[in-house]
Fold each of these.
Amino acid sequence: MLSGRADKARISKEKQKLILDAAREMGYIPNMAARKLSRRNTAHLPEIALCWSPEQHPSFLNTFIGILQDMTAGGQVREMRFTVLPYRNGELEKLASVLTANYYNGIIVPAVSDNDVEFLKNTEIQVPLVLLFGDIPGYNLVTVDNYRTGADVAEIFHRHGHRSVAVMQPVYRQISMTVAQRNSGFLESCRKLGMDAAVVTGRPGELYSNKIGEGRALAGKMLETGKVPTAVFIQHDLVALGALDVFCGKGIRMPEDLEVIVYGNNESLEVHSPSVTTVQYPTEDIARESITVMAELLDKPGAEPVRRILEAPFVFRESCPP
């Protein structure tokens, strides 16, 4: 009855209603795992868990789903069923019982914090695991070189003759490893190149209406110091939109007064006036490569871990010419 085959079993509508009402009152929840096992004629699809923190950029999740649909529909990879497992940065260990119980045939974990890395290092997961960050022995990796990206931005500013620069980043409950790595690459290269580099960010616990509002607040904070740099690396595309609004409103010219490079793929930065130079996180390539790696791992259990580092290309525009 509760499996949806009541009409085939010739159960009257009146009796169906009584049973459904009783089930609702009792708080009945179907056991989906048991249902899957009972459907012997249904083709088994590998179940993949995509761990997802709401602090990650929302565009990645949308892109990942679209790429997955295109690849499976085009026959590039086998069909897979994905389940999104939400968690917050630094709290991946709360999923430990699920990740270690072999409920899934594979697991994909995007960028996370140091706490989450420690959890993964000390946890034995039996199914194929693809990381989109860092490097943990025994696990598979599809990522970009974030440290190199930060260093490249610093080197560009140095070649353009800047001596006072800054990096602007949003506030995180626990900073993502990718942001921390880009910061390290940028600040360490600035130090080696003899540039004075400041970090512009908010205080933990400060509340903003959204990332654009946070960008406005951080730009205002930077201008209030009276020590305005001549170049700034903004670590989030939505934060950049708010900051640029403030800079333009104060009559700051780009690139004459301030050169700007932004990390992120927001299309609004292309049509902004002036147009904004960006480092493009290769969202589509990361999604496509991680799906491909997972499909390969499912077909070749026990294969050696793979490590694939993709390019994060610069797109030079008016705010920081090449």
Amino acid sequence: MTARKLTFADKLLPTCRANSDQYAGPPETYVEALYQMVVEASGIADPMAELDLETSERFTIEEMASNPVALRFLQMLIWMTGATHILEIGAFIGVSTIYLARALPPGGKVVSIEKFDEFAAICRANFARNGVADRIDLRIGDAFDIVPKLPRDELFGLVFIDGNKERYRDYVEMTEPLLAPGGVVVIDDVFFHGDAVNRPPRSEKGQGARAVAEAAARANNYRRLLLPLNNGMLLMMKERSPASPATARS
């Protein structure tokens, strides 16, 4: 019997058999062991242990906030690109906002948009409790009302989108004029629990997540990479232009 030829898909994830067949422990413990190795090697602490946080009674941090590995990834992007001006759409209780603000160089600012008053109030408390309130400009309301009113002469070096999945593609199109040449858009939860991989997706959120991935495939003015990190993170770096405004901040 001829063995099946190994494919690149067989080696996409660390949990694929081709990448985990040397693990000696029970298979059901591999992901936890892998996670512990990642956070230890990366120096990543649990947000609940590292931060002083007021939480929501409706949702846990584990349910709604970005994974600690993804938070470190966002910080790495800031450190590597030197971004000083960041836009965040969807803050929840401000965990990701705090990590973005902590990675900023002196004088940097995060403009964070949270639609719901309930979560925005918790955000404000958490920003103050963790000493980053002076680096965050929290806007409360719908991003589609707020973003068009932002100044056009201060471009963003990083845009982090974690709002309504149904509108992901609209968020990218709306923020494109505000993204500096060479700036990066990061879109979270693009796999949407596997539904976006379905053809067609079964939910409106899955359809919205798939739509932004399909739009990225056609976006030749961006360099892009859809990473199988957590629930799927799409990176899109805007091509640099020799005619970029001299006043642009990144």
Amino acid sequence: MSTASVVEELTAALPAGTVLTDPDLLRSYERDEADLCTSGAPVAVVRPHTTADVAATLRIATAHRTPVVPQGARTGLAGGANATDGCIVLSTTAMDQIIEVDPVNRYAVVQPGVVNASITRAVAEHGLRYPPDPGSFLTSTIGGNVATNAGGMCCVKYGVTGEYVLGLEVVLASGEVLRCGRRTRKGVAGYDLTRLFVGSEGTLGVITEITLALRPIAATPLSVAALFDSIPAAGAAVEAIARAGAVPSLLELLDAVHLRAIESYRPMGLPTSAEALLLAAVDSAEPAELDVIAEACRASGAVEVHAATDAAEADALLAARRLAHPALEAMATDLYGDGGALIIDDVAVPVTRLADLLAGVARVAEDTGIVIGVVGHAGDGNVHPNIVVDRTDPSSLDRGRAAFDAIMELGLALGGTVTGEHGVGVLKRDWLVKELGPVGLRVHRALKNALDPLGILNPGKVI
């Protein structure tokens, strides 16, 4: 069937203004924020407001065997939301209602287009919080967070998105609506289908409603910053903190490349002579825990340990951490002009191997002659080696990709995973195959075929 007939059927079936076909608008929906990942041109963008709109879209897509690429705010960093040629982009950003907040049972029911930070503000009125806070929490939508099982800076204590998803409403490729999960605090009836869809990156169904667990608001965090003259020493401090039994609410790492990039991008007096900065926070009722963390840093070779004297200073350090990505983008532009680009990596290893990973990344940078800045959630063993390349220079691209592959290989060799929180998308499909092995890959494909037999949902992503 023709592209025109698909668009005509969508336009006839959906409310006015839901289907976008203007070429300039379509171009803005082609990709997420991942550099150097392939993308294509959609035939239409559908912006549904209801589950019924999503179901109608998928029924039409199935009838025409037209690919559908679900999208949220397109803040992803692995190409998971990139359009393919001839696809329908299904953007859920207009499904932005907070349906219910239950302060007694401590859950919220939301549509997928609600921005992460909006949930935080809404539930705070009830003395509650939704802990997961990816770096893009001010702009990323909860549907995308669930689809990628996003992490964030507080994961070291509070865990990733999936640990807060109690239930889902999902529209399958056929247009059928599935409800899975629960609103009770306990429940083990049947297979855990909710967990199956969390992190599936839109390849198994389109999430249209999410029930989230909430937690009481924590105490005002106290924070400490430790400076190191080597990045492996910072990694050793992370292990020492874990061995000491401390439970920080945040434990973040910034290397020298990022410290200098952030200070150039937005001067705030960061210690640019240091090789690494470890930022820790504690939000428990035991402030002595911060002393344990500080002592572990000193014992691991910290050249300076500084406790924030007030909330404003602590907030400034956290703000600096959140600037890591835009600051390194600016650095790439400073180095290579319009050709400046980042290959953003996301590898996680056991905390006991973090120092080895950090030392290995430094060797990769030296061997390839490529600038690699390391930032990340050190307390989880999850870091982002960000590789700076010149997209106009084939040699730079080749060396950048070689560095990316070497870091992936190193992460797996250290008992880790090729993605801790960004997802697989386009960027890491080949590496996922290596991590899963043949049996794991066969099971993944069997699940995909069972739920999406025509292969129309987000093709080319994950597997």
